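Two records follow; treat each independently.
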Amino acid sequence: MLSLMQVKETEQRVSDAIAAALKVEVEIIDADLVRVAGTGQVRAGVGNRLLRGLVNKHVLQTGEPVFINEPGFHSICLKCPLSGTCFYRAYIVYPIKAEDKVIGTISLVAFDEEQKKNLTANTETLIDFVGRMADLIASKVLEREMVREKIVMAGKLEAVLDSVYEGVLAIDERGVITHFNRTAERMFGIKKENVMGLPVKEALGNVPLLDVLREGKGFNAREYFINFHGKRLHLLVTARLIRSGDNTGAGVVATFRDFREAQKLAYQIITAQDMLDFNDIIGESKAILEVKAKAAKIARSNSTVLIVGESGTGKEVFARAIHTASAHSHKPFVPINCGAIPEHLLESELFGYEEGAFTGARRGGKPGKFELANGGTIFLDEIGNMSLYLQAKLLRVLQERQIERVGGTQVIPVDIRVIAATNNDLQDMVRRGRFREDLYYRLSVIPLVIPPLRERREDIPRLLDHYMRRFSRLLGKKIEGFSKEALELCLEYPWPGNIRELINAVEYAINLEEGPRILPESLPPRLRDEKEKKRSLPVNTVEIKPLEQLEKEVISRALELYGWTDEGKMRAAAALGISRATIYRKINKYRLGETK
C-alpha cells in the first residue's frame, strides 16, 4: 500500500531544504491527515493528526492545488470554527499523487508578514515548484514501494526455494553463487552463508554449471558424480540458463536430486499398481498353501530365492508377494525377463551404460536395473536363458554386491535382494554345461517350487470364479457363473499353460457368452476338443504307443510327481525301479526338462 510514512525521513529533508530556500514553512500531510513532516511552528506536531484540516481534506478529495491568501475568509474556511481568526497568514496546498491516487499534500505556509510576502510575491512560480516537489516525493514513495515489493517477493522466493524437495543453486554471469536453498545445504552438507558470494568452482568443486554459462545451453536430468569435501555425491542435475534483456547469459539456476531417491520415486510410481501380497494368490489347496507358507517365512530374510515352476504358474506373483512381505517393501521391485531381451541388450539393461559406451548410447549414460533396484528387489525371470558370459557377471554381483556399467570403470555398490525364476531344470543344465554350477548354488539358497495347476485341481473353481467376475466387470457383462457342463470341461482339462492359460480361457468365454452363465460352446475349442478326443477312443481299446514313447512318458510323469531336483529324481528312480544313473541317462536321452 502506498503511504507517505514509507519515506518520512526523505520528506523531512525535503521540507527543511524548501523552508531554508524559500523562507517559508513546509508541512506534509498524509491521506489520514497525519502530519508526516514539518518545519518551524508545525514541526512539533509531526506524527499527530490534524484536528480540522479543512483545506487539506478539500485537496485530498479534489486532487487540485489551492492557494489561500486570506485564511479564515476563503470559501473553504467558512465552516471552520477559526474562521476570521486563523493563525495561518497564507498558504499553498498541493496534492501528492502516485498511480493516479492522492496519497497526501505538501503545503507552503506563512505564519508572519515576511513569509506571506515571500508566498504572494511569485505565486505561480511557487505553485509550479511545489508541484515538482510533490512529484519528487511521490516518486520516492513509489520507489520505496517497489523496493518493499521486491523484498517481499524475494522473501517469498526464498521461502519457495527452501520448501522444495530439490536442491536449488543459482550463479550470476561471473559464476558467483547467488542462491543456495536448505535442501542444497542438506545435500552438500554445508551452510548457505559459507558459499554465498563465492565462485561456484571454488565453493563446490566440479558442479557442472560453468559449462552452461559458456555454451549458453542447459540440460535436463543429467547424472553426475560430484566429489565434495571427501564425499562422493551421486546426483541428478537439471540446469537452465538465465537470459538478460539482450538475450545473453545472466546466470544459471540448477536443481539437484539425490539419484537414488529419484530412482525410488520413479519405481514407486511405476510399480504402485502391481503391489501384491500373499492374499492375492488364489487357492486353498494343500499344495498352494504349503508354498505360500514357505514363501511367507523366507520373505523376512534377505537371502536369494530361486522360484521354479512351469510357465504360467505365477512365479512373478510369488516374487512380488515376497517383496511386499519383506522389510524392503517400500523400496523398488524391478522385474526383468532375461529371455525376452537379446543378449547384447540384456547386459546394458541389467548393468546400465556410460555415455559413448556404444553407438546409440544415450548422452549422460543410463542406469541399469540393478541400480534402479538398489535397496529393494530385482526379479530375474527366465534366468535359465541367460548366456554364460552374463552368468559370470551376475555371479560377481551376488558375491561382491557391486556393479560396473557397460563402458565404465566406476564401481557402484548395490544393496539388493535377488529373486530368480525359471521353468528349466537348472541342475540338468549345469550337468550339460549350459549353466554355471557356482551361480546355481548362489541363486538357489532358498528354492521355491510352484505346483502346476493340474496338481491343485481343487483350486480351479475358485480361480474360474475370480477371473469370471474380473472380466465381467471389465467387459461390462453380467455373468453369474459357469454351467455344470462348462465347469466339468474346465476341471477335466489338463491346463498345460497353467493359470495363464486359465485366464486366457475365461476372458475368451466372457467375450463370447451372451447369456447369464458360461456354456461349453463359449469356452475355447481346445477344452472341448480334449474331451472329444477321450470320447472318440473305443471302449476297452488301449492305445498302442512305441516302447520308447511309453518310457519317456512314464519317466516324465514320475519326475512331475516327485520333482526335478536331485532328491526328486532319486525318488522317481526308486519308484520306477531303476538306478539313479539310469534315470539321468534317460533324461539326457529323451532331452527331458528342456522346456521346463
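The next record belongs to a different protein.
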Amino acid sequence: MKRKFFLLTSVIVMLSLLLTAPVAAKGIHGGGNDIQPGEPITLEQNIPVNIVFIGYEKEQIDKQALLDQLPASYSPVVRYPQFYGLPGRDMGLQYNFEYRVSFAGTGTTNKFFNYLKQIGTPNAPTVFQLAYNDQVNNVLDVADSVLYIDAPSVEKWLAKNLNVNKNKGYTVVFINWFNRPDFEFHVYTKTDVVDPDTGYNFGEVRGSRKVIAWGGTTSRLWFYDLSAGPEAWTANYDVDNPDLDGNGYEDYRMPPIWEYTTGGYRDPAALSSDLGLVTRFVAIDLLFTTSPLYDPMVTAPDLHGDKIVHINMMEDDPASLGTDWISTSFVYNQLREFEPYHDWQTNLVDANPIDAGAQRSFRIFAGVLAEDDCWNAFGTPFAQLFCYFDINRDTYIPPYEENDYVVGVHAFNTTADNLGSQFGLLGFADDNWIDGTQSYVFAFDSEDYRSLGYGFSTTTLHETGHHIGMSHPHDGYDSEYGLDFGPADDFYFVWSGDESNTIMHYMDLSDEFGQFDRDNMYRWATAGYLNWANSLLGEIAAHPQAYKVLRYVTRANSYGLQAIQSFNNWSYLTATFKARQAYEQVVIAANILGIEPAPAMQMLRIAPSLTVPHEGDPIRFPDN
C-alpha cells in the first residue's frame, strides 16, 4: 500500500510540474503556482511591437496620439460562436504588448529610397491612379509615369536592414517618400503567383492588385506606405465620396499622404491617430495576434487519425468538367506544409452528372427554384446546402477511420444561370447553424469565373482555411473592445489587411498560408493541446490506478515543458509538435485507465439564430 501510494503521489506531483513549472503558464482560477491538474491554463506571452517610420519627419508624428490608439493586451476568442451569444472554448492565450517607436536614420532612409528607385520599373499609372486624377477634390495629379516595385523584395530589404528579429517580435514600418525631393509616384506589386488551375496572374494583369502595403512573406514585418498609390483595395483613390456604399455612414479610409493637408481629404492633425488605427485594427488585430473564425481544435484528428479533405465535385454544367479545374495535390501540399503535425489526405469524387437531390438543393440555394425544404427551419434558403448535405451526410461522405477528421467539401461546377442570385459567390465555409461550430465547405466555379481567373483549387484551400480556423485578414476581433469588425463604415480601412502574404485574403496574390497565419495557428494549437492534456490529467490524477501510467505521464510532462519552452522562444511549430506529443501520451494513459477523452466541443445547444451573419466569399473587383 505504501508503494502504491508513493507512485500515485509521484503521478500527481508530475502532473503539477507539467502545469506549474513554466512562468508562462498561469491558471485561470487562482493564478500563480496553485494550479491543479484538470484546471485550464492560459499561456501568456510578451509581444514586442516595433513601429518604425521611414521618410516621416519627427514633427509630423505625435507619438502619444499614436500610442493612445494601441491595446495593452490581446486575448483571442473563437469568433463565430459569439454571434450565437456563446463564448466558445477558452483559447488559453493572452498576449501583452511592448511598443517601441523609432525613426530610421538618414543613412538608412537614403539607402531605402535609392533601393526603391533601383528595383522599380517605370510604367503607366494604374486605372485607379487615373481615377484619382479625375476626382474633383484631389490635391494633385499622379504623374504620367509611376514606378512598379516588387513588394516581397521591399519586405525582405526592410527586415534585413532594420535588423528585425524574426524570432521574437513584430514590426510595422510606415513609409513616406513624398517628403523628399527624389520622390516618385509608385505602387507595389506581387507577380510571382499564378492561379494553379487557370494560369491567371492577378498581380500582373489587374490594376486593383497594385498595393500600398505588404508583409508576412519572409518575416514578421508589415509595411504600409501612404505615399504609394492611390489604390483600389482601400478605395483611397476616391476623395470625393466619403460614403462609398450610400448607407449614410462615412467609409473611413486613409487617403494618400499628400491629402493630409489643409483643404485636403483629411486634417493633417489626424495622421498620427490614423496610423495608430492601422496599427491596432490591421497589424495587431488582423495579422499579428488575431482570433480564429472557428475553433481550430475541433478539426484535430484523434490519436493515429488523419485530417482528410473529401471533395465531392458536382458536375452541373454539361459543357465542362470541374475535375479539369482543380488540383488536389496543390490543396494537399499547402495544407500539409501549413499543419505538418497532422497526416493529411485529399480525396476527390466526381458526381457526373450531379444527382437530383444535390441539384435541387443547389437550385433552391441559388434562388432558381422557389420551393420549401429543410431551409425553412432556419429562415433562409442560404441554409439549404448545409441542411441538405447534413441530413444526407452518409450519402456524400464515405466512412473513414474512426480517428480521422473529415472536411466535407462540396464543389459545384456550374453555370452563371444556375448560380442565379448567388452569381459572384466563390464559396463559403459554413457553420452548423446551431452554435457556431464549423460544418461543410462549399465552392463554386463556372466558365464565367474561369474567364476571370478563378479555378476550384484556391477557393477550396481558402475555404478549408476558414474551416480549420483561419479568419480573413480584413475582418476580425478586437480583444479589449470586445468588438468583431469588418471592412465597412468606421473600419473600411481594414481592407489593407489583405495586402499581406496569405491565401486568406481576397487579392489572389498568394497561394499559401503566410508567416502571420502560421504564428497564430501554432499558438492556438499549442495552447489547445496543452489544455486538452491538462483536462485529461485531472481525470488521471483522480483515478485510483493512476500509478500504472506513470511512464506516460512522465513523457507527457517532458513534452509539455518542451512545448512551453519553445513557445516562449517563439519556436511555435516546435511548440505545437511537442504539445501534441504531450497530449498523445496523456491519451494513451487515459485509454489504459479506461478514461474517455472529452469531445472537442462542449457547448450549450440553443435554437437557431436568424441574425447570425451567414455569408460567403465573393469576387471583389470582378471587372478589374
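Discussion point: Residues 515-541 form the longest helix (27 residues). How would you locate this feature using only the C-alpha cell line?
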